[in-house]
Write a structure and sequence with these properties.
homodimer; Arc Repressor Mutant, subunit A; Four Helix Bundle (Hemerythrin (Met), subunit A); two-stranded antiparallel ribbon; 10 helices; 62% helix; DNA-binding; DNA-binding (chains A, B); DNA-binding FadR family transcriptional regulator (chains A, B)
Chain lengths: 256, 256
DNA sequence: CCTCTCCTTTTTGTCGGACATATTCCTGTT
DNA sequence: AACAGGAATATGTCCGACAAAAAGGAGAGG
């Protein structure tokens, strides 16, 4: 139902006093993309509750100082990701969480623009614990020489720069991407794009809280060795412990 | 209450033969949604190859007999799903497959509007074989009385009507949905919601090819019993065989 | 007083045209 | 031939208007 009165004011998280509401588009970004990000992160982070009605298009686009067209295109993006639903006269309303495309890369990114709920991170790691060992198993059976080469270089880069540097984290992503590529399974790879992004965010969290309490390189090496040897069971097991430790680190980091 | 009904009309179910005619929107469907579906399925089914450039907005929207605004909103949907990318002056180009959000429900649906590649189905079932046994295991550990009740009624409905009827298939979906809900993991639920939709399409394929070669009820019962008993290992194993058989059936049906 | 029907009003949906912006690509210069 | 600069072109944004659908209220009838 409709809450009376103060119901749903646009956020315009007022750092500026005056009408600086216009979402300036960052590097090369399109305007409607910026609006979509702004609205999307606002929804995912809970500033709009499921069932809430957004302000009307005309009014909202006015307060944002953008044209209705740009605003509408942004809303279409949110509709495409299952965050909101628009019906004539009823307005645009936030859908319940179970309709959201949580594995959409953008939605995941938006979820990590703010402090994500600990439960959600738990769910994500649980999915990782399901998918990644199985992926490692598949990779062990199907990898070719090129896959191993890419993983090896990524591993070397991880050793050289630690996970504290951005280049080091990029190498970590490369390692996991190469592993998933070796599964020869498009669906699994697509999942990785989502989970991988989330994982990189949680890695940043870990770093932010304190120094990494444990050197993750040996775990990665064990995974690599098992895949190189074509030992599917060992690869799965090694990956399982790797994810376990990552979860443990993240959890302790977030409690602090 | 929310009319869940996406039983909404499949537009232009008949012939798409007519040159490039205006995409008539089925009851309640928005125009840009229809365009997005048309373009999306064309891309996913391969009628546009990755790297191809779409016709310019003005020209294309003219041949479709729609306004540029509607066309643009449709394109934004495709952008949101990673299918295309638009850049000034360069035009709108189809992205490589690894950029697509394959687990997006709409993308999956579009993939099954035409004859999907057998490899893709294989990938999908492989992912199912990874996720669903693990989900059953989680469900066995976390289900409560309500979950079991819902699953039990769904099971009864499946027994009453077979999978040959739509109500029977709906009961099948209910069963799997209840199972996933019992995992208490939003990410797993979201993933399986996508895959589940695709699976229901393959089920229809099976039915179309020939009568279901095997009674699937006992397999479901085994899964239910294991979950009810809280036996995680048995639940995973039962689900594994269930998915295995489903894959086998689908494969033999598609070879015919 | 309640219910049903009809109409008003609100909000999204679609349209058309205009201008802005950013590249690409061609052209002309050095 | 290399480079710089301008014209062409496609997307990006803005504006204003009307169409369509549906929620909510008004009025007739029970």
């Amino acid at each position: 139902m409709e809450e009376a009165g103060e119901a749903l004011v646009p956020m315009q998280a007022g750092e500026a006093d005056q009408a600086e509401a216009r979402p300036k588009r960052g590097t090369g970004r399109r305007l409607h993309g910026a609006i979509a990000q702004k609205l999307g992160s606002a929804i995912v982070s809970g500033r709009y509750a499921p069932g809430d009605r957004l302000e009307g298009e005309v009014a909202f686009s006015e307060t944002l100082n953008v044209s209705r067209s740009a605003y509408r295109e942004a809303v279409q993006v949110l509709v495409a990701k299952g965050l909101v639903e628009s019906r004539t006269k009823a307005g645009t309303r936030v859908l319940p969480r179970n309709r959201w495309n949580l594995l959409d890369p953008d939605v995941l990114a938006w979820a990590f623009t703010g402090e994500p709920h600990i439960d959600f991170i738990r769910d994500l790691f649980e999915l990782r614990q399901i998918v990644e060992p199985a992926a490692a198993s598949l990779a062990a059976q199907r990898r070719d020489r090129d896959d191993l080469a890419v993983m090896k270089t990524a591993l070397a880069a991880m050793r050289k720069y630690s996970l504290a540097t951005e280049t080091g984290r990029a190498a970590d992503r490369d390692f996991h991407n190469a592993l998933l590529q070796a599964t020869r399974n498009e669906a699994v790879v697509a999942l990785s794009a989502s989970i991988g992004a989330a994982v990189s965010w949680t890695t940043q969290f870990k770093q932010r809280a304190r120094a990494l309490p444990r050197n993750p390189i040996p775990d990665h090496v064990r995974v690599y060795d098992a895949i190189a040897a074509g030992n599917a069971g060992a690869a799965a097991e090694a990956m399982r412990t790797l994810v376990d430790l990552a979860l443990e680190d993240t959890r302790s980091a977030m409690q602090a």
